Amino acid sequence: MISLVFPGQGSQYIGMAKDFFDNFELVKNLFDKAEKLSNLPLKKLCFKGPIDELTQTINLQVCLTITNIACYEVLKSELEKRNIEISFVSGHSLGEYSALYAAKVLSLEDTLTVVKERGRLMDEEGKKSASAMYAIIGFPLRDLEDLVKSAEDTVVVANYNSPKQFVISGKVPAVDKVAEKVKNLGGKIVKLKVSAGFHSPLMKEAEVKFNKILDSLYWNDPVIPFVSNITGKEETSGTIIK
């Protein structure tokens, strides 16, 4: 059984997809098409950076999505030659849109459109106040929730990645102080390579606007079994996934 999980923001690096671009014509075609659809210099951003510019969510969401899609298309082509099928697809945060593309829930055009708009809206909200995200590793959830509740400003547990890894998101310096307390109490902290405090109430206005964009798209039922990172279960209806 082969299952694919597509990564989200924070997994970016300069040079991502460059080897695929240099060696596969289909990847060159994908990047060319994506640049026309998004009106962004994706090849420059992905292959040369600089990293600060790549990491800006207004750029990164399209860059990372086309990288995911390019890698997926190469892998799918190689698996098909060997008569191997992909059993499940899923995605972490932004990566879920790449999984929706792989499952044929969304077309390439709609996938790139939706992540570009998602990036634009999140960028707008992120500029309203300084914010950040931290991965919290090896620290009890109950203790983390207590620290978050006592924070001096907006801080939330944004992601429950595993029983031993969580992500907090919120305003600076409140989120920094929570992370520092975790560290002092023996937990491990990793500041995420993102440009704002996503998955938090700071994105509320973006969420309202984004829902209207989602409603404008056509959502097919998945062709490859799709596991939602909201429910943790396989979803078979495009309407429910939306």
Automatic annotation (TrEMBL):
Broad enzyme group: transferase
Keyword Transferase: yes
Record domain Malonyl-CoA:ACP transacylase (MAT): where: 5-242
A GO cellular component annotation in the UniProt record: cytosol
Keyword Chaperone recorded: no
EC number from the UniProt entry: 2.3.1.39
Top-level taxon in the UniProt lineage: Bacteria
Reactions it catalyzes: holo-[ACP] + malonyl-CoA = malonyl-[ACP] + CoA
SMART domains: PKS_AT
Keywords: Acyltransferase, Transferase
GO biological process: fatty acid biosynthetic process
InterPro entries reported for this sequence: Ac_transferase_dom_sf, Acyl_transferase_dom, Acyl_Trfase/lysoPLipase, Mal-CoA-ACP_Trans/PKS_FabD, Malonyl_transacylase_ACP-bd
One GO molecular-function entry: [acyl-carrier-protein] S-malonyltransferase activity
Protein name, per record: [acyl-carrier-protein] S-malonyltransferase
Organism: Thermodesulfobacterium geofontis
